[in-house]
Each structure stands twice: as C-alpha cells, then as structure tokens.
Design goal:
- The radius of gyration is 15 Å and the shape is elongated.
- Strand 1 (6-14) and strand 2 (19-26) form a beta hairpin.
- By secondary structure, the protein is of the alpha+beta class.
- The longest helix has 11 residues, at 72-82.
- It has helices spanning 64-70, 72-82, 91-100; strands spanning 6-14, 19-26, 34-41, 45-49, 55-62, 104-110, 115-120, 122-125.
Length: 126
C-alpha cells in the first residue's frame, strides 16, 4: 500500500457502507505522479473528519479491542443515535463480536487536519 505523503483525492463508500476505497494521489512538482487505491472490505464502522486538503501520513493497524476502548464514548453515542452494526447490548459484547468475526481497526492520520478510522475485515490495493 502506498500512502505516505499522498493526497486524499476522494473516497468512495459503496455496498451499503461495507466497502470503502481511498483514492490517493502523489503529485509534487519535480516528482513523478503516482496513484494509489486502497480498498477496505466488510466494513463494520468508519468515521472521517475534515477530509479537505488531506495528506495521509500513516495508516496503522491496531487491535480492534484497544481501538474501541479508546473511542468507547463515541461508539456508544453513535449507537444511540444511529444504531451501530453488530451492536447488541454492551460495549464488551460489541468488542467480542468484532474480534470473533475477524475485524481489524485501522487508524488513518494526516498532516493537515484529517483524522479517520476504519474497522473492517480486510484491506487491499486495487
């Protein structure tokens, strides 16, 4: 996967939110232009904040249990407001379900204001 210092040109959400594709572009004066397309499949949950002008610095896979604990207040509120996929009755059961079903968490960081994460079963270049 190529992403460090790539600009997020757009992202696509399809299949009722189960597929997310990040379209990244490496385009700097005096350097060869390159594109990268990263596909997340079987997405359970995602959130992106401030996508305009994004330059990706890191996409880090972290244990799903650790990540959900870190954002637990947000997940509980999102479930209350929107009904989070796979939520049954508690945060602990939600984490257990994600782990049992083989989900992973990716934290996506940027040099300029953007932050996001994706919880999915797999990631690949396309």
């Amino acid at each position: 996967m190529h992403y460090h210092d790539y600009h997020l040109s757009k992202y696509e959400v399809s299949d009722r939110g189960e597929t997310i594709i990040l379209h990244l572009l490496y385009e700097y004066a005096g350097e060869e232009t390159d594109e990268s397309h990263i596909k997340f499949s079987n997405v359970a949950l995602y959130n992106f904040v401030h996508t305009s002008g994004t330059i990706i610095t890191d996409i880090e896979e972290i244990p799903v249990a650790d990540f959900i604990q870190k954002i637990s207040k947000d997940v509980i509120e999102w479930n209350r407001m929107y009904s989070v996929n796979f939520w049954k009755d508690s945060l602990e059961n939600y984490i257990h379900t994600l782990q049992t079903e083989g989900y992973k968490a990716w934290s996506i960081e940027s040099a300029i204001g953007f932050y996001g994460f994706i919880i999915a079963k797999s990631v690949s270049d396309i």
